[in-house]
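Q: Two folds, back to back.
A: First:
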Amino acid sequence: KLFFTDYGNAAKVERCDMDGMNRTWIVDSKIEQPTALALDLINKYVYWLDIYLESVEVVDYQGRRRQTITKGRQIRHLCGLAVFENYLYTISSDNLSILRINRYNGTDVQALARLENAKEIRVYQKRTQAAVRSHACEVDPYGMPGGCSHICLLSSSYKARTCRCRTGFILGSDGRSCK
């Protein structure tokens, strides 16, 4: 799945398949300006920053079990969001520091380090990497991902795929080759 935020005419948190199909709103109320998103892949939770409502919130992948992690003026100065173990990590543009927020007790906030200039944060650690299984976009014997001549996108499951073409090409009637 692909998760993303939008705060155009109607602010929301959405998800869809990797090929863009099955687009679903998972949060569309009491949300104004979601600017950062982080996923807990193990427990299947979506965290986001709303800088207008000055809150960090969480829901499960279906948009249920919504909770506020923390609220306050300091939120409007945050950018980027990552989750690892019991903590959320973000960057304060106010004092250029990395902040660690306990995701179960939003009042436990610690500044960890100062940075020159950062707008995003990611945690790279072996435990954050999902196990890779055989999937529909694996390279075939001819070197084509999922049998697609240009682009292979996973669809509704790891066993299904959709072929797409680069700009200037159209998908052939076989659903795999680009002309």
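A: Second:
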Amino acid sequence: PFSSTGPLPTGTVRLDRENISCIGKTRGQERIHSLYLQQNQIEKMENLECFPNLRFLCLAGNRIQRVQNLQGLSQLSLLDLSHNLIQVLDTEELPRSLRILDLAGNQCTQQEGYRDGVLAALPQLLQLDSQPVQGSAAEEEEGGGSCSSEEEEEEEEELLPVLRAPFTVDRGFLGDVRRELAGRARLRRALSLEEHRARLQELRERRALLLGPGQG
């Protein structure tokens, strides 16, 4: 099982392909914003309330049969549950904060009315099973109009200095996101901004720890 008695060392935790069978209780994980547990042997979604500030959760390629215990994750933006054993989906169990959801490879995606039901339950969704959502509430909030490739490059250059060392553990994630969302400017911008905010907060916290009180 995956568990811990103290805070983990970084905002991103990668425990993929570790033969983990369950998610145990863990304390002091308020700083964790990204959790990668893909390609394990996990059968149940549990104890996720221990990560109240989680924004990215990957549980792809496990043995999960039911979506549950996500109500405490009010900031969750990306949820990857692809290639599990979910036969019936209860949309009430999905956080309304989700922007990207992947359930591909689960039997529940073959249910009649599956996509319409998910979109009705998640008004902020930008992407479902690798397919963009047209006319979503989140898309309308952004004001319409796609970002040009030149503008995208400028935004990425602005973010990259923050995402480089010492956060080397996150390079793989950034690359995955870029490949997955290539050609979809709004989706990439939404994820980049979420990750950027998390990095800035982490940098502020580390700076405060290094300088001590009253020197920030």
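Q: And?
A: The two ends are 39 Å apart (CA to CA).
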